[in-house]
């Protein structure tokens, strides 16, 4: 049985989204249990109204709620009994295998990092997300906003944790192909940090295919795309804006005349399939990678369907035992990298002696 801790009070709409989303998820996953964290009376009332399967739900009381615009450090200092923090504590204490929240992203990251700490060898956690690409493929991209400035070593660490997560969830696909997001595929392009990261990745045992451009996110040519949080967040928001724009433009064109309205009726099955395939709710649920615990961030403004998908993401990670596999992979990769660096330093010293 997989147990997930849910911040029931988090997000723009709180219980009106998290409870129906939780009920929908439980209907699909009969081998899952939920710990709904929040104000006991309010959570119980909402669950009763939603006819929730209470035999697979525990309620954990939390007296505080982190506001969506609350500064992360203040939330961390002053909201020690918030639904967000108590949900993360459930993971730390071993009561749940993953935590899910639609609350304040900055506060969630700060709290999760403080409570769970990072995996040994990982300096900073990253925000990762699976995105749809060609031929029903999924591409994992990170970092999507947790770290605006990154060193080459940190980009290397992102590649390691991204590779290990992808392999844990999709073992049948073999060694994940890693691409470093850049302004061109040539080795000579990019900032000095990107060039240094390229060298580190090339010397690692990861399946590094080289620099990739933005279109690689959707082409299916790589499994994991690595970027710093500034670039990654810009790419993600651009994708979200482009999808929304295209959807609106298509809808507008089909409403332009009686002829196009008739054409829309004929094309309806294809349009419905397109809408479902790129429905952002299906890809709701960003993963905080690099922590000693599984934490999934739902979009704060999503609906119940989107929140159910965020729970689904956490369920898959927990079921695949991704955390243990990531920790093992990180230890192995970083040990290998340290060994190669030592060999390189010894070679330089030998050359200087000669």
Automatic annotation (TrEMBL):
In Swiss-Prot or TrEMBL terms, this protein is called: Phosphate acyltransferase
Reply yes or no: does the keyword RNA-binding apply.
no
Does the keyword section mention Magnesium? no
Cellular component aspect of the GO annotation: cytoplasm
Q: Per its UniProt record, what SUPFAM superfamilies does this chain match? A: Isocitrate/Isopropylmalate dehydrogenase-like
Q: Which organism is it from?
A: Neisseria animaloris
Q: What does this protein do?
A: Catalyzes the reversible formation of acyl-phosphate (acyl-PO(4)) from acyl-[acyl-carrier-protein] (acyl-ACP). This enzyme utilizes acyl-ACP as fatty acyl donor, but not acyl-CoA.
Fill in the subunit field for this protein: Homodimer. Probably interacts with PlsY.
Q: Name one GO biological process term.
A: phospholipid biosynthetic process
Read off the Pfam families from this record. Answer: FA_synthesis
The record's annotation in InterPro entries points to: FA_synthesis (IPR003664), Phospholipid_synth_PlsX-like (IPR012281)
Q: Where in the cell is it found?
A: Cytoplasm
Question: What pathway is this protein said to act in by its record?
Answer: Lipid metabolism; phospholipid metabolism
Family per record: Belongs to the PlsX family.
Molecular functions (GO terms) = phosphate:acyl-[acyl carrier protein] acyltransferase activity
């Amino acid at each position: 049985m997989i147990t997930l801790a849910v911040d029931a009070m988090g997000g723009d709409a709180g219980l009106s989204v998290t409870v129906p989303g939780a009920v929908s998820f439980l209907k699909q996953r009969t081998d899952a249990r939920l710990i709904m964290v929040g104000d006991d009376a309010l959570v119980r009332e909402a669950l009763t109204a939603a006819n929730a399967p209470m035999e697979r739900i525990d309620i954990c009381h939390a007296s505080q709620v982190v506001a969506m615009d609350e500064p992360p450090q203040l939330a961390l200092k002053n909201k020690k009994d918030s639904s967000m923090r108590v949900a993360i504590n459930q993971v730390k204490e071993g009561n749940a295998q993953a935590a899910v929240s639609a609350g304040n992203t900055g506060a969630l990251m700060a709290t999760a990092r403080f409570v769970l700490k990072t995996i040994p060898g990982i300096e900073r956690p990253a925000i990762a997300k699976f995105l749809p690409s060609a031929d029903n493929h999924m591409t994992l991209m990170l970092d999507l906003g947790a770290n605006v400035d990154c060193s080459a070593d940190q980009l290397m660490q992102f590649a390691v944790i991204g590779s290990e997560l992808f392999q844990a969830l999709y073992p049948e696909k073999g060694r994940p192909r890693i691409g470093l997001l850049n302004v061109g595929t040539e080795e000579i392009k990019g900032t000095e940090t990107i060039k240094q990261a390229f060298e580190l990745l090339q010397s690692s045992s990861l399946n590094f295919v080289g620099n990739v451009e933005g279109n690689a996110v959707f082409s299916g040519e790589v499994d994991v795309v690595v970027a710093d949080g500034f670039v990654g967040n810009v790419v993600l928001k651009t994708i979200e804006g482009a999808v929304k724009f295209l959807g609106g433009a298509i809808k507008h064109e089909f409403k332009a005349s009686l002829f196009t309205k008739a054409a829309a009726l004929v094309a309806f099955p294809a349009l419905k399939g397109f809408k479902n395939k790129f429905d952002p709710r299906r890809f709701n649920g960003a993963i905080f990678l690099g922590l000693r615990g599984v934490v999934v961030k739902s979009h704060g403004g999503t609906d119940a369907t989107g929140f159910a998908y965020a729970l689904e993401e956490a369920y898959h990670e927990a079921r695949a035992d991704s955390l243990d596999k990531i920790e093992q992979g990180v230890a192995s990769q970083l040990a290998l990298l340290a060994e190669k660096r030592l060999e390189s330093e010894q070679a330089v010293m030998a050359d200087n002696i000669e």
